[in-house]
Amino acid sequence: MSTSTDERADEARLEQLLEEQFEAVVARHERIEPRDWMPEGYRRTLVRQIAQHAHSEIIGMQPEGRWLTRAPSLRRKAVLLAKVQDEAGHGLYLYSACETLGVSRAELTEMLIDGRQKYSSIFNYPTLSYADVGTIGWLVDGAAICNQVPLCRTSYGPYGRAMIRVCKEESFHQRQGYELLMTMMAGTDEQRAMVQESVDRFWWPALMMFGPPDDASPNTARSLAWGIKRNTNDELRQKFVDMTVPQAERLGVTLPDPDLRWDEERGAHDFGQPDWDELTRVISGAGPCNAERIAHRRRAHEDGAWVREAASAFARATKEPGRDRAQVEQASGSSLRDPEGRVETP
Ligand SMILES: [Fe+2]
Ligand SMILES: [Fe+2]
């Protein structure tokens, strides 16, 4: 055997050992960390899923963000502002988690605005009334909670840890939405009609958030085996329906599904199927707001270029030998100190 054949055999043995170690960690439900060896397919699947999740948080700021200037009271505005800002934070934790897998946030943003990576189908629907703010909180953030709570136990450490904080904030989002709808339902007939109309529009797209049915979801088995996903799409959809039906009753709205009923034997609700062709259309870019969402994101990214350049230039300048932060600030005629003299972090 030649040396290079020996080396190849050694490499193959090492790879097998590493793979066995990886499988054992996953089987024990422990975490894989950024410096651990991982199969290339696992890394790629995680990049795709975490990026898609991060993009959803950032694009998800748009449908509700457009109502910030038209909130009906100062209280509603403060609540909505806090919620939309939380979503930006979620996006940032998730981009950071994704960066631990060797891909930069700049690359991820490029892939989003080029259409090479996707985001949740739900954010391609318009928000037509203020009731939609409540419905999104109740149904969309509610569906996100069903999806994300099991991800706190996902096998990749940085993703799981990001999800713990995200889920706490999502609970607040869901409650603020439900509380808004409760208030409207206690109001005038017109307000009640607005809530019902909003729920009618968002119910089916909310069910689609869990993805296609299990028999049309080819990647699920692999993701479950790797401990990335903990439940199938259909299991999560069922959980969401069972959780939401009693909330709808309490609220006094009708969910627009004639097939929705309690199945005594299964101990769960039976329900109708969303229009899966619609999901395919929306995911492939032909939903009502896809073009608008991406155009807005692209514009925001381009408008922010000077901030990224200035921050990088500042960081480079402060690293030059013999120059400290105060000197750079003085030389550039700018100050990152707030009025009380504290230095703000760029
Ligand atoms: Fe979020
Ligand atoms: Fe949220």
TrEMBL record:
One of its GO terms (molecular function) is phenylacetyl-CoA 1,2-epoxidase activity. Its EC number is 1.14.13.149. Residues 316-346 are annotated as: Disordered. It is an enzyme of class 1 (oxidoreductase). PANTHER family: 1,2-PHENYLACETYL-COA EPOXIDASE, SUBUNIT A, PHENYLACETIC ACID DEGRADATION PROTEIN PAA. NCBIfam families: PA_CoA_Oxy1. The keyword Ubl conjugation does not apply. This is Ring-1,2-phenylacetyl-CoA epoxidase subunit PaaA. Keywords: Oxidoreductase. GO terms for biological process: phenylacetate catabolic process. Gene3D superfamilies: 1.20.1260.10. InterPro entries: Aromatic_CoA_ox/epox, Ferritin-like, Ferritin-like_SF, PaaA, PaaA_PaaC. Coiled coil: none annotated. GO terms for cellular component: cytosol. Residues 317-327, 337-346 have a biased composition (Basic and acidic residues). The keyword Oxidoreductase applies.
